[in-house]
Amino acid sequence: MQLKPAELVINEDGSIYHLNLLPEDIATTVITVGDPDRVGQVSRFFDTIEVRKGKREFHTHTGHLNGKRISVISTGIGTDNIDIVLNELDALVNIDFKTRTLKKEHTSLNIIRIGTSGSIQPNIPIDSFLISEYAIGFDGLLHFYEHNTINYPEIEESFIAHTSWHKTKARPYVLSYSKKLGELFTDNRIRLGFTATNTGFYGPQQRQLRIKPSQMELMEKLSSFSYNDLQLTNLEMETSGIYALSQLLGHEAVSLNCILANRSTGEFSTTPTASVDKLIEFCLERLA
């Protein structure tokens, strides 16, 4: 099947529409970060950088560290951007741009998110690291794609009952990380967690400035939820989308979180840049 120009949009220079990348521009190991400025924060540790490209909020550096080729790309904030980034990264390695047809041989990417997050449990300290072993998405992205057995309906039903989840909202979906890739980052410095992916930073995460959130009790329900000793640990805005599309497209994915805030105690890190730097160094040490 040949993909139509309106389905696979290619720029005049042969690059993919939003990311502005050519197939040869990315490595099979891809680090994603939300903030475009964090791309350079990661790539400054590379031995060499061969690609520097950017368009809108999507900035990419590809280089080598200890002989390993690695790409780092900024996604911006939210699962709507993740939908663009993951689909276009996959297209770069699994679609022939000249014929607009799917390649016969599938290429699997290793996708590692390095992001910041806020814990909702008092025993998770700020400036600590957390791997999202599981993620629950409130964003609804998964429901726009055909899927069968990648999610955990039993946990979803338990969560819906515990929180009295409103029927007008998207059904929460639960996914897990790539155990194969996650094992690479197993360390006594980093805990396993169950991450909630929200659709926004303020109201959806029960932050009140001038508008009162509609469910002020939701934070308490999130922190008190437990399923077979599996407890929600932290909040952020991308992980469930990364896990959903990675599994549907046949890629390995893991989300690494630097805990900068604790919503239970009200604390926020006084050294956020240094803490993120430590997580970046830990990640690159394991990759290379």
TrEMBL record:
Signal peptide start-end: none
Recorded hits in SUPFAM superfamilies, A to Z, give:
Purine and uridine phosphorylases
EC numbers, comma separated: 2.4.2.3
**Residue ranges of every copy of the Nucleoside phosphorylase domain listed in the record:** 29-262
Q: Which InterPro entries would you find in this protein's record?
A: Nucleoside_phosphorylase_d, Nucleoside_phosphorylase_sf
Q: Which Pfam families match?
A: PNP_UDP_1 (PF01048)
Question: Would you say which domain of life the source belongs to?
Answer: Bacteria
Query: What's its catalytic activity?
Result: uridine + phosphate = alpha-D-ribose 1-phosphate + uracil
Protein's name according to its UniProt entry:
Uridine phosphorylase
Per the UniProt entry, what species is this protein from, by scientific name?
Answer: Maribacter dokdonensis
Classification from the root reads: Bacteria, Pseudomonadati, Bacteroidota, Flavobacteriia, Flavobacteriales
